[in-house]
Amino acid sequence: MERTRLGLVPLVDPEVIERYRALVARRAERVPLQYLTGVSSMGDIDLQVGPGVFVPRPETELLFAWALAFLEGHPAHPPVILDLCAGTGALALALANARPDAIVHAVELDPAALAWTRRNAEARANEGDTPITLHQGDVTDRSLLTELEGKVDIVVSNPPYIPEGAELDPEVADFDPHLALFGGPDGLSVITPMVSNIARWLKIGGALAIEHDDTNGGQVAALLRERRVFGEVAEHPDLAGKPRFVVARRVATEAEAARGH
Questions:
Q1: H helices then E strands: how many in the chain?
Q2: Where does 44-169 have alpha helices with state H?
Q3: 235 in any annotated domain
């Protein structure tokens, strides 16, 4: 072809251009980018996302990294991991990918979100990752997962924690499920009762990592410190330097120590 005619050849298929313009228009309407691509990520894995499930945030990568570091220094073989309010399954599946020796459980209440958890779990298993066990249930229910009492090495959770009435960007307020966002008037209506359950699931020496709203980090840490079953409580910031997740270790009470745990 003559060089003088190269400018007449379309570099991109017109159909692709139209699809691109349609995506730009939807993004201008504040539809989350992840909904448009259908993909989010955590650790080294990609996750399918869409309407009906909370989109994983970059901030949660820090909680994931902390959990992975804890497991690397924890002697359990195999380690037992429990992800509460799993949503897409981001934390559970990223940890299963990074630790193929682990036994991983994930809990989700919302049927619509659980469908996404299952979809991602099946996709990761097909890629060769260790399969995880899914449970539909309420993380505040005292009868939930009694079979795991005293058997879990680490609990991770990105629960609903935004205080009701908080101002949110349209990408969040209009698209993320309400059930996955809001934790009551103070943002603690799920976290507070969930902590009691975590205490009974964790082994002595096990750990928890809970993400929270940047306005109530001190309250979550205080909630843990008030309970004799938790020690080494520490607060961690997010990528913007705001309080974002709290960690703690399960310690033996005097009664547990007296009977050798």
A1: 10, 9
A2: 60-72, 90-98, 111-126
A3: yes
Instruction: State the residue range of the domain holding 207.
Output: 42-258
The number of beta carbons lying within 10 Å of the beta carbon of residue 170 is 11
Bond before 237 cis per omega within 30 degrees: no
pLDDT of amino acid 13: 75
Q: What is the pLDDT of residue 178?
A: 86
Task: Note the pLDDT of residue 76.
Answer: 86
Pull the structure tokens for residue 244: 């974002």
Inter-helix orientation angle 90-98/111-126, to 10°: 20
**What pLDDT, on a 0 to 100 scale, did the predictor assign at position 104?**
99
* Contact predicate 88/106, CB 8 Å: no
What distance in Å separates the CA atoms of residue 144 and residue 121, rounded to the nearest whole number? 21
Phi, psi of 231 (to 5 degrees): -140, 175
What pLDDT was estimated at residue 37? 75
Instruction: Specify burial of residue 84 (Cβ count, 10 A radius: 0-12, 13-18, 19+).
Output: buried
Which pLDDT does position 147 carry in this prediction?
Answer: 98
Q: Does some domain include residue 166?
A: yes
In whole angstroms, how far apart are CA 125 and each of 128, 160, 242? 5, 27, 35
| Four-CA torsion 89, 90, 91, 92, nearest 10 degrees | 40
Q: What is the pLDDT at residue 26?
A: 59
CATH of the domain at 82: 3.40.50.150
Q: Which residues pair with 156 in a beta bridge?
A: 83, 209
What pLDDT was estimated at residue 15? 79
Low-confidence ranges of the chain (pLDDT < 50): 1-2
pLDDT of residue 1: 44
For residue 89, the model assigns a pLDDT of 98
227 is a domain residue: yes
